Amino acid sequence: MKILVAPDSFKGSLTALEAAENIKKGIKNFDAQIEVDLLPLADGGEGTVQSLVDAADGEIIKKKVTGPLGEKVEAFYGLLAEQNTAVIEMAAASGLPLLAEAERNPLKTTTYGTGELIAAALDKGIEKIIIGIGGSATNDAGVGMAQALGAKITDKNGRQLAFGGESLAEIDNIDLSSLDPRLKEVEILAACDVDNPLYGENGAAYVYAPQKGADQKMVEILDNNLRKFNQVVMEELNINSNHIAGAGSAGGLGAGLAVFLGAELKAGIEIILNSLDFESRLEGVDFLITGEGRLDGQSINGKVPTGAGRRAQKLQIPVIAVAGSLGEGVEKVLKHGIDAYFCIIDRPADLEAIIKDSPKLLASLSEQLMRTLALSVPGTKR
What class of enzyme is it (predicted)? Predict the structure, then answer.
C-alpha cells in the first residue's frame, strides 16, 4: 500500500511538514511496511513559504526590508533552486502582524518592502515568483511595491508619491520605463483567493480596510483614492484595473501586481499544486490523507484539503481529511474532494492542551485510521 500524506499546517500548532510527519508516524506505528510519501502543502496564505521550502527541499532566505510604516523589519522569502523559483509572502514585509493594533493605519502603510523582497529574489536569477498576498496591512494598490522595483509613480510636480493609501489622491503620472528589466524575463503568479474589485462596496477599502485600522471616514478616503488610481492607470497604461478579478485583494496589491508587473492572479492552492506537480505525486497512490487545523464549510473555498482532494478523486483515489477541529458546515467538504473526515480531539480539553498534544493526537488518529482501513483492504495487516 502507498499513501500520500499532503496536509496544510495546523496553524498555531504544527507546520505542514510537522503535521505530515506525525501522520506518517501513526501509519508506521500500525505497519512499518506501508509506503508513505510526504508532501507539505499550503494555499498561498501564511505558511506558504515554509511549506514549499519543505516540499521542494528549498531554503529560506532572510532579508531586511522596509516595513509597513517605513521602519526596517527582518523579512524572508523561499528559494526553490531546482525549480528556479522564489516564493514570497507579502505579509512577511507588509503584513498586519508586523504592527501593533494602535499602529494600524492604511492611509500610511506601504507595500515597498514587498517590492524589495521581489528585487532580492531577482538577484538570485530565478525564472518564476510565487507571491502569497494574504494578511496585508496596506491599501496602496501596490504603488510602494512598484516604486521599490524602479517605477516612477508621481504627483503633478513630478515627485514620487509618499507611502500609503492616502497619497494615491495625488497620483498624476505612471512611468514604468525604469522598472527592473529582469521582471520581463520572470513569470509572476499571485496567490489570490478572492475576486473583489479594486473599489466600490465590495472593493479593497470597504471590505478589508476596517480590519487594518480604518474608520468610516478613512474607508471613504481610501476608496476614492483607489478610484483615482484606476483612472490614472487607464489613462497611462490603458488598463481598467477594477475589472481584474482579485484586484481588491491585499489593499489593491492584486491590481498593482497585475498592471505593474504583469502578474497572473490565480487560486493559491492551484498555484501550489501545479508548482509541485501534484498529479505526478499521486501516481501509484492508494490513499490520500490531507488536512488542516480547522475543517469547516469554508474549507471548500480554495483550501488545501478540498483542493488536493478534488485532484485525487479525479484519479479515483480515496481521500481522507484530518483536522484539529471541525466547524459549522463541515459536511460540505464531502461533496468537494473529501470522502471522510476526522478530528484529532479524543477527549474534553482546553485549546492550550490540544495544541500541546497535537503531535501525539495526530499520530494516534492516523494509526486508528489505518486500523479501520485494514478491515476493508484485502491482504492488509490487522
Answer: transferase
Q: Torsion angle, CA of 121/124/128/133, rounded to 10 degrees?
A: -10
How does pLDDT run across 203-219, given as a tens digit for each residue? 999 999 999 999 999 99
For domain 48-269, is the CATH number 3.90.1510.10? yes
Which conformational region is residue 26 in: left (phi greater than 0), alpha (psi within -120 to 50 degrees), or beta?
A: alpha
Question: Crossing angle of helices 351-374/16-30, nearest 10°?
Answer: 40
Rounded Cα–Cα distance for residues 110 and 98 (Å)? 12
HSE-CB at 174 with a 13 A cutoff on CA atoms is: 22
More confident residue, 46 or 285: 285
Domain with CATH 3.90.1510.10 in the chain: 48-269
Which residue(s) pair with 85 in the sheet?
80, 128
Strand ranges (E), 171-219: 173-175, 187-191
How confident is the model at residue 124, as a pLDDT? 96
Which residues in the chain are classed under CATH 3.40.50.10350? 2-40+280-374
pLDDT tens profile 219-235: 999 999 999 999 999 99
Domain 2-40+280-374 carries which CATH code? 3.40.50.10350
